[in-house]
Amino acid sequence: MSRKITIRAFKYNPLSKISKPHFATYELEETPGMTLFIALNVIREKFDPDLSFDFVCRAGICGSCGMLVNGKPTLACRTLTKDFESGVIELMPLPVFKLLKDLSVDTGNWMNAMSKRVESWIHTDHEPEIAKLEEKVEPEVAQEVFELDRCIECGICVAACGTAIMRKDFIGAVGLNRVARFKIDALDKRTDEDFYELIGDDDGVFGCMSLLACEDNCPKHLPLQSRIAYMRRKMVALK
């Protein structure tokens, strides 16, 4: 049996001189298997074509549809409306990131800056020869690297982080996860000292308060807690 659900969506256009932050309320018929992504599309098609939100894959792969759902950062495409017993769902944009409009935020430029900051590429001591086979890597090491590479850069771990909300220069769990990925990679020749230069301060690994909301909310269930602890142990040894 279907029911009516109420969605309160944050609306604000920073580029408009007349726009003011407010919530718009929509009531719609819930359908079997309805996700927030589906609900938002219904709202945009039937009630409010001006409502802005992001999506690409609709399958929890691209990370575009991250938002606060009743105060919790999550992916709209992976969130079922039936899981909210009250039938009332409040949507807000992710904090920390630049607001573009309504529920849409700019995670791309933030992630790009983070990637450059941690020098997110293999550092080697020789010129790669693309005509030759890549260097062999032990399967266990490769599996560890692949596990951390599953990060979809949705920004949810950043939005859930108390330090990132308070301090705009904090690299966040996504950045520390990225550093751990290259630290583990046998093809990367950087030393612990090199990584210390990148994250050995309060804007890096020592800024983490270990609240672990990052891992609690990660939609890909990455082992962020153990990777942050791993990097902290490595960096503490150099202090």
Mean pLDDT: 94
Number of strands: 7
Helix content: 25-40%
Strand order of the largest sheet: 2-1-5-3-4
Instruction: Give Rg in angstroms.
Output: 20 Å
Summarize the structure.
By secondary structure, this protein is an alpha+beta fold.
Q: What attributes characterize this protein structure?
A:
239 residues, alpha+beta, two-stranded antiparallel sheet, 9 helices, 7 strands, elongated, iron
Characterization of the model:
The chain is an alpha+beta fold and 239 residues long. The chain is 33% helix and 15% strand. It has 9 helices and 7 strands, in the order ββαβββββαααααααα. It has helices spanning 36-46, 107-117, 139-148, 156-159, 162-166, 172-184, 192-199, 213-217, 224-236; strands at 4-11, 22-29, 66-69, 72-75, 88-92, 98-101, 104-106. Strands 2-1-5-3-4 form a 5-stranded mixed β-sheet. Strands 6-7 form a two-stranded antiparallel ribbon. It is elongated and about 60 Å long. It catalyses: a menaquinone + succinate = a menaquinol + fumarate. Belongs to the succinate dehydrogenase/fumarate reductase iron-sulfur protein family. Keywords: 2Fe-2S, 3Fe-4S, 4Fe-4S, Iron, Iron-sulfur, Metal-binding, Oxidoreductase, Tricarboxylic acid cycle. InterPro entries: 2Fe-2S_ferredoxin-like_sf, 2Fe-2S_ferredoxin-type, 2Fe2S_fd_BS, 4Fe4S_Fe-S-bd, 4Fe4S_Fe_S_CS, Beta-grasp_dom_sf, Helical_ferredxn, SDH/FRD_Iron-Sulfur. Its EC number is 1.3.5.1.
